[in-house]
Amino acid sequence: MLRESTAMTSPQVPLRLGTRASPLAQWQADWVTARLEAPGAAVERVLIATSGDRNRTDSIANVGTVGAFTKEIQRALLDRRIDVAVHSIKDLPTEPTPGLILAAIPERGLCGDVLVTLDGRTLAELPIGARVGTGSLRRRAHLWHVRPDLTMEDIRGNVDTRLRKLQEGQYHALVLAEAGLARLGLAEGMTRPIDFATLLPAVGQGALGVETRADEDATANPALAAVAHLDHRATKCCVLAEREMLAALCAGCLAPVGGSARVAGDGTLVLAASVLSFDGRQKLTAEVSGQLEDYAMLGKRAAAELIGQGADALIREARER
């Protein structure tokens, strides 16, 4: 565990912010740090290696650990080695961790997926049997539903590593989160957005989660007050609706499940969800809408509609693969 101070001259006791060491995780930590320091907080960075970081060879589906990119950071929170954790929400298990609270979800921007090729091709323009790099069962199943000829191949590593493998000719295309590429300023001119009708994002994709301890005495945990202004109500309701849906399906973050919630022009929350078979042949969809404050009920309702269509069997099949 390495430490680097971002406010060494501050007389305050710094908030110890825990994060992974990847370039994207560092961007996210920088973003949160800047917004904590703006009102006067002092922040100290604590870098934490997770099991997902240490195992860089197995596919994500085979790592076999729930919370592969979050558990070690959460353990540091509970052990009081850090005060604040910054996660990519899509990596955070929906099962609550006793003693911890998701204190803030900042405003979310881009949340979709993009196809990355050397010449900017669309999904329809890929050659028959094209090799597509993705370790996500969700992305594989959605793309196989519209292009069953594609050859899906595992890929691991940070964004830079994946782009290098594309440039070396190991793949015809990659599928990556648009938010990550935009934050790092990578792959400009090489990406084509994939519409949500073809590929729904992962639950929580594009959103950050700021987690801290759920101490009963607020004076024992100043981090709760320090991060409160980062919370964005509409984003939080949307993300929590997505997570309620995923939790009700008992699917986990690795299953071929998509979910995306948005706030419509009239202020209602609209949640779209999908569950696919492992091979993409079957695709179940649901869309529900209602008041923003009813996000939990809407998530459960979407899950119930999918279960009524047979989602349980598809999720079970994907787990057994």
Describe the structure.
- Helix content is 32%, strand content 22%.
- With 321 residues, it is of the alpha/beta class.
- A six-stranded mixed sheet has the order 1-3-2-4-11-5, sandwiched between helices. A five-stranded mixed sheet has the order 8-7-9-6-10.
- Helix 9 (233-249) packs parallel to helix 10.
- It is globular, with a radius of gyration of 20 Å.
- Residues 5-10 have low confidence and may be disordered.
Structural domain count: 3
| The CATH H-level homologous superfamily of the largest domain | Periplasmic binding protein-like II
Count of beta strands? 14
What number is the mean pLDDT? 92
Radius of gyration, in angstroms, nearest whole number: 20 Å
Low-confidence spans: 5-10
Net shape: globular
- CATH fold-level name of the largest domain: D-Maltodextrin-Binding Protein, domain 2
Q: What is the H/E string?
A: EEHEHHHEEEEHEHEHEEHHEEEHH
Can you list the strand order of the major beta sheet? 1-3-2-4-11-5
- What's the N-to-C terminus distance? 35 Å
